Structure formats: C-alpha cells, structure tokens
Amino acid sequence: MRSFSVVIVLLLSTCLFACGGSDADLTLGILGGPCYGNNTCDEELVCNADKICVQDMSDPCEGITCSNHGSCAVADDQALCVCEAGYHAQGTDCLADADPCLDVSCSDHGDCAVADELAVCVCDAGFHAEALTCVADVDPCAGETCSDHGACALADELAVCVCDAGFHAEALTCVANVDPCAGETCSDHGSCALRDGTAACLCDEGYHAQGLSCLADEDPCLDVNCSDHGRCALADELAVCVCDAGFHAEALTCVADVDPCAGETCSDHGLCVLNDGAAVCLCDEGYRREALSCVFNGPPTATAEAVSFSDFNGDTGRLQGDILITRATDESSISRYRIYWSNDAGGILGAALAEYAKTGSDLLHPLPANTPVPGGASRFLVLTSNAQGEMNDGVFVDIVDSDNWAPTVTILLGIEVTGSGVASVNGWYREDGVHDGQTQYKHENEDVWLFWFGMDDAWVISDETSIWDAYESYHYYDYTSPSQIPETGWSNGTDGHGDITVIHHQAITGLPYVDQGLTAHYVYHDVEGDQEGDSRFTWYRCEDASDPGQVITTTTGPYTLTSLDANKYIRLKVTPVAQTGWQTGSSVLAEKVFGPVRPFRTLGIITSQETMGGRIVYSAIDDILYLSWVDYATRAVSTGAYDGTLTNLGFIDETKDSDGAPWMTVGADGKPVIVFKNSTDGHKASVHRYDGTSWSDLGDANFSAYGSNCYGPRVEVGPDDLPVVIYQGGNVQRPHVSKYTGSGWEDLGQIFGSNTGSYSMAVGADSMPFTSVGYSSSMYVKKYNGSSWDDWTAPFQTGSRTLTIVDSSKARPTIAGIVSGAATVSRWETNQWVDLGGPTSTSVNAISALVYDQDDNLYLAVAEDGLYVLYRYDGLSTWEQLGVIGMASWNMSLAIDGAGRAYVLFRDPEQSNKLHFLEFHQ
Predict the structure, then answer these.
(1) Are residues 658 and 678 in contact, defined by beta-carbon separation less than 8 angstroms?
(2) Which regions of 484-562 does DSSP assign to beta strands (E)?
(3) Nearest CA-CA partner of 881 in 836, 818, 839
(4) What's the farthest any 2 CA atoms get from each other in the chain?
(5) How confident is the model at residue 861 (pLDDT cuts 50, 70, 90)?
(6) What 3-state class would DSSP assign to 171?
C-alpha cells in the first residue's frame, strides 16, 4: 500500500506541477506529508506528534485492561477480552457472571439447581415443576366421596373406591348391593336363597323349581307326544320315548329309522320297496330279482372286454401260461364266464375248458404245463352266461404257440370271500349252501371238514382286517364228508375254534410302519425246471389304492419303508429270473396294494400274549414315559418306563389280580399313580404310587356308597398331589368319586343320580375334580366345590355318548365327544365353552384319547372306520390328520413327551391282540 501511495504521490506531483498546482497541496494528508488541519490523515495513516502522516503501527489492545479480569486479544485487527472464569466479556470489559438461580425461589416449594447452565426447580414432595415454579400436584381422590359409603384410594395412580360392606363400586361411586332374592316369592311355595351369588328357589315338598318359581310336581310325560310315533314312559323318574316300529328315540322325539331302501337302485331296472321292514326289489319286465339287483331275465347282453394269453411252454403243440379275462364293463346280466377252444371261424371245439363265476374283478385261468392243443384249435374264446343261457357272441385271442421256455410268476391275491365257492383263505372256503338262511363256510383240518354258519357279522372284509374273533357268533358241525351238510347237530361256537387268522395283501407282507421291511410273495415256476435266480421286485409308492404310483426302487429282496412312505400305499411288480435257460420271464403287477403305511415307528410288542390293555403317561419332571398293562391270561398288573430304552418296573404286586385294563396318571411330583379293579380284594379299586424304586399301596378307594364292587376306575392327580378316583359301583353303575387325604379315602359322593354309560374326569388347578357323564344321548358336566357337585353347562347337549375331559397347563377344561358321527372338541375359556371344531370325518365311533403336550398343543385320537387315527389341532380352526395308528380294538392310550413326540400303546388286533408300543415318526 505504501509503494502504491508513492506512485500516486508522484503522479499527483507530476499532475499538479504540470497543471500549475503547488507542492503544499500535493503532500497534505498522505504518507510523509503534513496532516490535515484537523490532525487527520488519509486511510490507514495516522498523524504523529510532529503532525506528519505516518503508517499506523499501534497495538489495538494498547491501553485495554479488560477490567483487570481477563486479557486482551486481537481478532480481525479488533481488540477483544478473554475473561477469567466467573466473568464474561462485554465490549472490552470483563463483567462478573450472574447466578442462574439468582432470585429463583421455586415458589418456596423447592430448590433451584443448575442443569446445562440453566436454572431448574427441584420441587418438594406433592409439588411438580412448571417453568421456574413448583406447583401443587392434583390428588386423583380430591373431592371424591365414594357416595359417603367408602373411601377413595389410589391404585396404579388412579382413584378407586373401596366400598363399605353391602356396597360395591361402580366408577367412583359406592352403590348398594341388590339382593338377588329381593321380591322373589318362589310362587309362595318355597324360599329364595343364594347359590354362588345367584338367586335360586328351595321349593316345598311336592313342588319343583323352574327358574324363580316353584311349580307343582307333575307327570314328566305331560305334553310329551314322542312325535306321535311312540308313547312316553318313565325311567328313573325321567320321561323317555318308547317308539313305534320303524322309529327310534332321540331325546323326547321318535325319529324314523334309516330307510333300508336308501341308495338302492335295483341296478336301475326296478324299484326298491319294503317287505316286513326289509328292502326288496320289484324288477322291471324282462328282469328278475337277485338280492338287491335286477338282472336281465335272459342270456347275457354283454361280453368280456378282452381276453389275453402268452405261451411260456417251449414245446410245439403244447401250451402253458395264464388266460386273463378282462371283465365286462356292465356285469348286471352276467353270472359266469366260460373259456372254450375255438377255430378260426369262431366254432366251439368241445366242452368248456374252464368257467368262473363273476367276482367284480378280472379273472385269471392258469393253463397247466404241457397242455396239448386240440386239433383245429387256433383261438381261446370267452363267452358269458347266466341261468337263462349263454351269449352267442364273445371275445377271443389267437393262440401263438411259442417255442421258448421262460420262468413265470403268479402273485397271490388278497382275500376274496365275496364270491361263492372261490378263494381259499388258510383253508377256509365260502359255500353256496346256507343253513337257517345264513351263508356257510368250511375248513379242512386233518381230513375233517368243519362247517360253520352265522359268521356274516364277524367276516367283515376290509384291507386292514387281519383277524376276526368269530366265537360266540357262529355255530359249527364236525363232519367227515363235504357231500352232505346236516340240518341237525350244530353246536355253539364256544370251544376255541373262533380265532380265524387271515393274511391280507398276500403279495406283500410286513408291518405297515416306518423302518419295517416288506417281503414279496409269489409263486415261481419254470417249465424246464431252472432254479430261480435273482428275481426282481419293483416297488411303487402310490397316493391311494387306485394310483399306479411312482417307482421307488428295484430290489432282489425286502424293501424297507421310509418316512417318505408314511400315509402312502406300496405296489409291487415281480419279474421272474431263472439261473439258467431262458432267464427272464414276463413281469407281473400285483393286483392289490399295501397300505396305507402308518407314520409310526414300532418300538416293540410289550406283551408275549393277548393283553387286556395298557396305559402310557409322560412325566415332564423325570422326562420318562411310564407304561402299565395287564396280560389277558395272568391278569397281573405290570409296569415299565421308557427313556429311549424300555425298563421293566415289575409287577405292582404279584398277588394283585386285575379284572380290566389299569388306568395311570402322573402326580405333581412326576411319579406315576395307578388304579385297577382288584379281583383278589373284593373287586375294589386298588391305588398305588411309584416312588422311583418301588410301588406303595395307597389302599382301596372308599366304596361305602355301593359296597365292594366297582367298574372302570380312573385316577387323576391335581396340584396338591392327592389322587382322585372315579368309578361305577355295585350294580347301580352310577359314577362315584373318592379322594385320597394322605392317610385314607374321603367319599366325595355320587355325581349322577342315574345309571350312566361313559364318563371321565380331570382335576383342575384348584385341585378340585370336574367330570363329564354321558346319559340318554346327552352330556352332563359337573365340578366339585368342596362339599357338593355343581352343574356346569355342557358343550354338547345331545348326541354325545363317548366323552373325555382333560385340563391343560393353562387350567382350561377341554372336552371331546361325538355328535352325529363326528368328533367335536370344546374348551372352557373365561366363562363359556369355545368350539374348537373337529376332524371332518363323520364315521367316528369312539374318542380314544385327548392329550395336551408341554406347549399346550392339543392331540386327538379317534376310532373311525375300524381304525385309530391321530389328529393335531393347529390352534386356529384346522385338525391336521397325522396318520393312521392301527386297527381299532379297545384301550388305546396316547402320550406326548417334552420334545413333542407322540407315543401310542394299544391292544393290536394285527399282533394277536398283544400290546403294541409305537412312536410317531415326524
């Protein structure tokens, strides 16, 4: 800047000189020149003592003391003060800081404090800060009088009224309690009393309560008309309907029996009508009645669909193989199929080669080895026939005489007992003849023919049935010749001939459980006598019995079922292979499938002989499954434990003798408690508890009500660890309950005043038992209140006969029953029964088990269509079918361990009624 000024001076000097200016004017106020008259200079210059303009070299802080409480500093050529602690800058002075709490009194109800350099009030109890004042808190009870019948108090900082006796709180007022009996006269024939806080009438003799009235007793049958199809009668002081023929009682109505003609079409050639209550067909003209079918009254009008044959005989002019007849689509006019030798023109050569009665399935005729071909024969012809004659037209197959010898295989069929005089099953045959109107069967045993009748009810054919106990449902006669069946001399079937063992699915045998092996069964044959080599078995997995399936694997031995096979069916194809000669024959597909495969893994057969049943329970404390059972022969009560290995805990007491299956539960200590009917002690209910090493006898439950006999005892244990037993006593068969006190048995009384069918019990979280009872197609639920039995509402009013009740870990009673053939479940929540629905099946005939697991998931096992089936509730609305357990017999028990695995113990008809132990395979 100074050099710049010099240039300007020179320029100005030059200009002034040139322009006629003076030197005095040139130097005034500039660097090195005299000051202006007022002792000032141009910008950035100062006038010194000599009144000459010089550059300003002074310090901005010169002379600034910052009030002696700080130091001066220069910023942007300006002086500023950096003050000491407790002082702040104001211009070039340092002034003392002011206290934020100065003059802050907090309304004299608190103290001022500094927070983040700001004053705040810390208020006394009962006051709160608003800005820099302390304001009194508002009392929620201020001004609340509770109607002068109580006192206001705080609950969770809210005002509530604690009312005087005789008053109750409604908002912040105390209102006088209303006496439920106020003004109730009980029709002047009784007195009003409170029962659980509710008004009820205690009526005079001869009157009964109906609501809050006492009405004169009257005939229970009054106004009961039984739907005008029966009459009302009294049973145990209750009205029941005795219905007319063709009707049955449902509650107090008479409902028409199912029409025997329902669904009967008489083959669409007639009309079904009732004759003495039985369905018969009135057939159209040209048709005749056979059972509930109308068949064409003339020769057949239909032929077989096809016939096939392959020759496996290597000799020219001789045949061997199977003639397969594909049945007619409509067999209504057909009784039999006949096979003939035929020439090219369709002419019949001689008598029928073979004939077969229709079975509803295709037919197979094995042509024996080395069968000679008659002269002129070039075809097999199949004609249909009935009692009216034979159809002229038919189907044929040309005979191709092969010179190759190949092995053959014939797969055994499953059981067929629907035709007459066909299908041998372990020596059993169904006969054409009848005795007393019933079909006869015969069995050859050491050259003695045993004839039987009256077995129709026992011989129910199904893919699952393997044993029929026909004793007491048949009659028999020992006879040495099958040519004549006598009409006299028949005996009742009570001599041990009754167990009829029948093998199903003869193409495949094995237990239908995961991890079990399946074995192929067939008849191998080779005309040349070549020994069988490694014949191949192709295994198919099918969704159902009609599904052709997908190939699983091909083996030369058994196939082991896997978890992928669960709830599926298995089909088999056999390919015969010879060691030498013509090695491979034609593959044959088994007609029947095996299954369904059950999603369970068998843990073993517990008993070595038939059982009366068993029980399985889970102890969450010990993480052990406890088992109990009774052998049918010994009747000794046996026990075991399973923790991955089955351990026998021995007999309860070798002198104890059970008349039925035991009932077992787990106490609060995690140890099992068991009850059974002890036939060596007056048929009383004997109760025992396991202490981890041995069983201790808790004595006999109290039988003072009915004497010494009891039926169907069950035991449950509540949180107080005291067993409670329910049973039917004596001959009255009315449910009764006894509770163990620690030293003896307390009688809790009769829970129902009439003889009942099924019943069950659970013990609630309050250690009080509640029960369910089925009576006269209705359900009743009762809860013990410490002195008597209170009535609960029942979730199913009618139609339920099989009942079970459990208490979940959340103390919510849950009950299952059967209504119109369907299983349905309800759970008590807060103050009402909530419908949980049930499986979709409408063919349920028993509730087998209802069990909660440790996570409160609900499992249901039912008997439907002769099978035990397991379901699981998804917690919302759906019951998922987990799979078939096995054939339904009786006494099935279910338990769920801590890992959510289901275990089943049941009397297995497929294992000669031995006790079968299964684990559900997830």
Answers:
(1) yes
(2) 491-492, 499-501, 508-509, 513-514, 517-520, 522-525, 536-542, 550-555, 559-560
(3) 839
(4) 176
(5) very high
(6) coil
Q: Which of 181, 179, 175 is nearest to 163 (CA)?
A: 175
143/361 Cα distance (integer angstroms): 93
The dihedral of CA 833, 836, 837, 839: what is its sign? Answer: negative
Q: Parallel, antiparallel, or unpaired for β 723-729 and 710-717?
A: antiparallel
H or E stretch covering 769: strand 769-775
Report d(CA 84, CA 712) in Å as an integer: 99
CA distance 8 to 68: 45
Three-state DSSP at 188 gives: helix
| Lowest mean pLDDT, pick from 164-178, 252-266, 325-339, 428-442 | 428-442
Task: Write the CB contacts of 713 (distance below 8 Å, at least 6 apart in sequence).
Answer: 663, 675, 676, 677, 685, 701, 725, 726, 727
Whether 397 and 341 have beta carbons less than 8 Å apart is answered as no
CA 211 centroid distance within chain: 40
pLDDT band at 475 (very low <50, low <70, confident <90, very high): low
| Residue among 386, 385, 402 at smallest CA distance from 394 | 385
Q: Does the pLDDT at position 763 exceed 80?
A: yes
- By DSSP bridging, strand 499-501 and strand 467-469 are antiparallel
Phi, psi of 45 (to 5 degrees): -120, 155
The CA-atom distances, in angstroms, between 56 and each of 44, 338, 487, 570 are 6, 143, 155, 114
What is the value of pTM for the model shown? 0.53
- Structural tokens at position 135: 């304001």
CB within 8 Å of 698: residues ≥ 6 apart: 673, 687, 688, 689, 723, 740
